[in-house]
Amino acid sequence: MIGSVVLSSLSSKGWHFRPDLGKVETEPKIIKVKQGGGGDFATVMKAIDSVPADSKNMPNLMFDATVKEYGIVGSATLTTLSNYFVGAYLTIANSAPKHDGKRAGAQAVALRVSGDRSAFYGCNKFSFQDTLCDDRGNHFFKDCYIRGTVDFILEVGNLYIWLDSEIFVEIDPKLTVITAQARESSSEDIGYSFVHGKITGTANGSFLVRAWKSSPRVVYVYTKMTNVVNPAGWSHEIQPERAKTVYHGEYKWTGVGAYSSGREPFAKQLTQKEAEPFLSLDYVNATKWLLPAPKI
């Protein structure tokens, strides 16, 4: 089963992000997608193609799989495997119940990106733990929105730039962490670059990064941070030795969440020269493959 394309509001799940979309959702249409038959279509692409060209709704791709059922990569509502994939103006959600910290395997991926040279424009991604599994390859996200609680930007091995986008951290009584980055050696040329974005939400004391592996590299540049961000900023996963190998950098952030004086000592306050490589599209070799957002 691939999942469902749901052309309806997500407000019933407690998610609110585009009030203007509600005006065009008076007659929602639900399209069921199932590979083995029994649905309206066998593939998500055929379901999307069935939507009239003049439709004003943003297509919502929804599934409710969990890691316990399908494994971390298999639980994704949408998985992209091809190179040069472009996703535009989609909402991708995993509607499995929020992880309560007690149920094993309750993590639920909304989007898994496993192709190289992939771009997403104006896309919204909703889940709680492990919302985005940035699996492998070079990726570019612009004007996107992502929502989650713990490790909801999860990476196995790649480079990506997140530009002009919003990260929304939902409240959780135990722990909230935005990214879990999997770089294991300083020789690996992988990492995250968040540029000209903002961090909002309902959480308190959320960490920007945790050192899931020994040498994560994550940089926030020109980012507006609200009070959802923990003053320490970064977590080394209760393994002090990782403070010597992580690369956690910030440059020209703003907002009440930008507590430079309270940051962990290993959090690097970048100079302009140090920040420049993370600001360039060359970071993901995008000058060789990236195209502008499609006009729809």
Strand content: 25-35%
Q: Give a short account of the largest sheet.
A: 13 strands, parallel
**Cα-atom Rg, whole angstroms?**
19 Å
Q: Mean pLDDT, as a whole number?
A: 84
Sheet/helix structural class? mainly beta
Q: Outline, from the CA principal axes?
A: globular
Count of helices? 3
Which fold name is given in CATH as the topology of the domain at 149-285? Pectate Lyase C-like
CATH superfamily of the domain at 149-285: Single-stranded right-handed beta-helix, Pectin lyase-like
The CATH architecture name of the domain at 149-285 reads: 3 Solenoid
Straight-line distance between termini:
28 Å
- As a percent range, the share of helical residues equals under 10%
Question: Which stretches are low in confidence, meaning pLDDT under 50 for 5 or more residues running?
Answer: 1-25
Number of strands: 22
Give a verbal description of the structure:
Residues 73-284 form the Pectinesterase catalytic domain. Belongs to the pectinesterase family. Pfam families: Pectinesterase. InterPro entries: Pectin_lyas_fold (IPR012334), Pectin_lyase_fold/virulence (IPR011050), Pectinesterase_cat (IPR000070). Pathway: Glycan metabolism; pectin degradation; 2-dehydro-3-deoxy-D-gluconate from pectin: step 1/5. The chain is mainly β and 296 residues long. It has a domain at 149-285: Single-stranded right-handed beta-helix, Pectin lyase-like (Pectate Lyase C-like, 3 Solenoid), CATH 2.160.20. The protein is 6% helix and 34% strand. It has 3 helices and 22 strands. The strands form 2 sheets. Strands 4, 5, 7, 8, 10, 12, 14, 15, 17, 18, 20, 21 and 22 form a 13-stranded parallel β-sheet that branches. The protein has a 9-stranded mixed β-sheet with strand order 2-1-3-6-9-11-13-16-19. The longest helix has 8 residues, at 272-279. The chain is globular and about 55 Å long. The two termini are 28 Å apart. The relative contact order is 0.10. Mean pLDDT is 84; it is low at 1-25.
